[in-house]
Amino acid sequence: MTDMDIREDNAHAVAAATDIFAALHDPAVRAEPYPLLSSLRERSPYTMTDSGTVLVGRYDDAEAILRDGGLTPFQGLDAVDHQRLRRLVSKAFTPRAIAVLAPRISEIIDVALTEAERRGSIDIAEDLAYPLPVTIISEWLGVPAADSALLRDWSSLLTRTFDFDVAAKERGRIERASAEFDGYFRELIDYRRRHPGEDLLSRLVRAEEDGEALTSQELLSTVGTLLVAGHETTTNLISNGVLALLRNPDQLALLHADPRLSSAVVEETLRYDPPVQLVWRTAREATTVGGVPVGAGEWVLVLVGAANRDPARYADADAFRLDRRKPDHLGFSLGPHYCIGASLARLEGSLVFDAVARRLVGAELDEDSLRYRRHVTFRGPERLVVSMR
Description:
By secondary structure, the protein is of the alpha+beta class. It is built from 16 helices and 14 strands. It is globular. Keywords: Heme, Iron, Metal-binding, Monooxygenase, Oxidoreductase.
């Protein structure tokens, strides 16, 4: 085979992989994207022909990228600002601050499941997975209860900015939602500066270290991140985990026999069906990924959903199993950009799965009702109906 033949074969392989990536945006594959992700993983890393972005799907490559401080989120701050901001924000995420939320989380779960038992069914997505995290993050931020629905609507639209298939009409709605979100929280931030309380937003306003504090724009960015991390991802974590349990009754039986496995359900869900499927990074300077060159300022796209099922990393990678030793998944990212809200998501998820073990015994999934949200970057059901006996 000549060098020209090799180059042509490589070009054809890259073009095929680029087409497979485009197919991820087809609504018909929302319910089961993992065969496509597996194909992309086996072809990665490679540079997509249409954008120049380097796509990565193997676990070892993905882990190295996420741990590398020289590769940053494409909308991120420089390293110094990011470290300063993270130090200040982390003061509001102490173990004590998270732990005190447990009774309120359990209360919301109990109310939702009690009402479901009365009705005889529950839409896990609509009745539990959506309202639980948005209620908690709203109350924690000090948002009036009457306005929590606004946060959910804004969050649903703002997360669409991470997808590729946003039509012009929808883009206008997203821009309006962004402006409304900024305006609302600018007013609330100003109010909390004058009238501080014990809520998270007040603590962020007060956060200081070496004489520094968060600016109003940094506060807005932080609140936006918390809304996505504290609502959207946890919503999908809960729905994906309950779905996996109902589809794997042997694993649900293990959980019922030992509710302490609720934490294992969280970790295995984050590996098996992660709420965040795609993660972007940009290179500050030229580097390589798995032998593929990445220029300064160029993008790398990590396929978390593919890497988390890499058979080179996990035995029986496509199976949902609670007997794994703590899996080193990428569900919360790694390194300097590890999800700061991970402890809250873990707490909410583990309390939900503990309740599921106790109260959804004999529940049956209505597969015909299952409908996925249109997101590609964020993955989770929009409708997930379960009958309760």
